Amino acid sequence: MALRFDREAGQGLRLISLTLAYVLVMLAAPLLMVITFSFWTQDYLTIDTTLTLNNYREAWGTPIYQVLMWRSLKISLIVTVVTVLLAFPIAYYLSFHVTRRKALWLFLITVPFWTSYLLRVFLWKVILGYNGVLNSALLGLGFIDAPLTFILYNLNAVVITLAHAWAPFAILPIFVALEKIDRSLLEAATDLGDSPLRRFFRITLPLAMPGIVAATLIVLIPTVGDFITPRLVGGTDGLMISNMIQIQFGKANNAPLGAALAVSSMVVIGLISVGIFLVGKKLGGRVR
């Protein structure tokens, strides 16, 4: 029995060895380099490898970095909430009300991926611009007298663009979770006199919680590090910590400080993600 177990374990290790090596080389090694770099200092082209916490003191103590970090978290949380709230009804409709050509509907959800992410951001810039599609349409219909200025080059534009970009990533995991719900539980709740609303909150929502948590983390984590969208549609009021990290690694020529900002961002979003996961784990699967 032990020999068979060792043989199966060896086969398993051989199967994952290439993947594990790839992960270590392409993910773990660069992450370790960034963490190490954050404890060094740089004077133009000279790197001082003496270990120091000065970069972290500056990252956490400088007001501009605090503002950018808080703004990044706020934008990411707003985008996540908006995206998940919009994604859930779509996933619910696909799971419970679409009986024919469900695969076609899922295929259509992926259509935005056919175009470049950068191109989609530029399209939103055209739509939300001062003389863009939205303002031109509203002016033409007589709903407004002057073009709206609060929908571009600010936090609002970043939220709208990111919510659209990440919507498919939120719809799919929620749809999968809803598809796994045993319909006999809903039928039993109906037979016992539960209203549709009560049935939703007692059965559907708790059992869909793993998909909701997955969608939340899938949207939350990458949006904190997005620097293209705030750079193109955010203006000065929509810039995020990722833009400052890019500046430190580029124009400012201060890679250690940029690394410290990056590690700080990872730690903060990691703690938030763990909290969300634990709350979701506690609520998930609770059918009352």
UniProtKB/TrEMBL annotation:
Domain ABC transmembrane type-1: 69-278
Membrane topology classification: Multi-pass membrane protein
Regions that span the bilayer: 12-40, 75-94, 106-130, 150-178, 199-221, 257-279
CDD domains given in the database record: TM_PBP2
PROSITE patterns named among the record's database cross-references: ABC_TM1
Places the protein is found: Cell membrane
Keywords, sorted A to Z: Cell membrane, Membrane, Transmembrane, Transmembrane helix, Transport
Domain of life: Bacteria
InterPro entries from the UniProt entry: MetI-like (IPR000515), MetI-like_sf (IPR035906)
Pfam families, alphabetized: BPD_transp_1
Family designation: Belongs to the binding-protein-dependent transport system permease family. CysTW subfamily.
Protein name: ABC transporter permease
